[in-house]
């Protein structure tokens, strides 16, 4: 799975509604490794093996961990969405889709990525012009 897909997947974790199992940390900086309370997910990009991703609450936001990728930080934007900060990419925003079908991940440097809810409880991460990534809790 590409670094961009992993980071975009991390955004999806903030939107899935699985935040209840995370315990927030009051430390100034998140831990280097995911805490034991982190929620574990598997993301499967087309033609690739599933990848482990861990999602943990931190302060007022969240941190997404995946082996070999710098952590991604999700900070609430005070309007019901999230601001995404990563060490190597620009700022992105997460906003709910008007029809309630999921969320749009917006970037100043590219088209919106869709995160769509599925009837079976899963999600599809759909970057424009690419095959989708399937998201399932582990």
Task: Describe what you observe in this structure.
It is a single chain. The chain has 138 residues and is mainly β. The chain has a ten-stranded antiparallel barrel with strand order 1-2-3-4-5-6-7-8-9-10. It is built from one helix and ten strands.
Quick recap:
This protein has 1 helix and 10 strands. 9% of the residues lie in helices and 43% in strands.
Profile the largest sheet: 10 strands, antiparallel, barrel
Strands side by side in the biggest sheet: 1-2-3-4-5-6-7-8-9-10
- Give the amount of beta strand, in percent: 35-45%
- Could you spell the SSE succession in H and E letters? HEEEEEEEEEE
Overall geometric form? globular
- What level of helicity do the residues show? under 10%
Number of domains: 1
- How many strands? 10
Class by helix and strand content? mainly beta
Radius of gyration based on Cα positions: 14 Å
Terminal Cα separation, in Å?
17 Å
* SS field, number of helical segments: 1
Q: Could you name the ranges where pLDDT drops below 50 across 5 or more consecutive residues?
A: 14-24
Query: What value does the average pLDDT take?
Result: 78
Key features of this structure:
138 residues; mainly beta; ten-stranded antiparallel beta barrel; 1 helix; 9% helix; 43% strand; globular
Please render the helix and strand layout as text:
Blueprint lengths: L2 H13 L23 E6 L6 E8 L2 E6 L2 E8 L5 E4 L6 E5 L5 E6 L2 E8 L5 E4 L6 E5 L1
Antiparallel strand pairs: 1-2, 1-10, 2-3, 3-4, 4-5, 5-6, 6-7, 7-8, 8-9, 9-10
């Amino acid at each position: 799975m590409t670094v961009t897909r992993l980071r975009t997947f991390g955004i999806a974790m903030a939107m899935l509604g699985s935040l209840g199992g995370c315990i927030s940390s009051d430390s100034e900086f998140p831990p280097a490794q995911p805490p034991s309370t982190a929620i574990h997910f598997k993301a499967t990009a087309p033609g690739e093996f599933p990848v482990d991703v861990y999602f943990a609450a931190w302060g007022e936001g969240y941190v997404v961990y995946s082996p070999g990728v710098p952590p991604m930080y999700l900070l609430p934007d005070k309007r019901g969405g999230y601001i995404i900060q990563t060490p190597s990419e620009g700022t992105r925003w997460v906003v709910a889709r008007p029809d309630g079908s999921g969320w749009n991940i917006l970037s100043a440097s590219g088209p919106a990525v869709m995160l769509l809810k599925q009837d079976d409880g899963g999600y599809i991460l759909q970057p424009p012009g690419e095959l989708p990534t399937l998201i399932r809790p582990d």
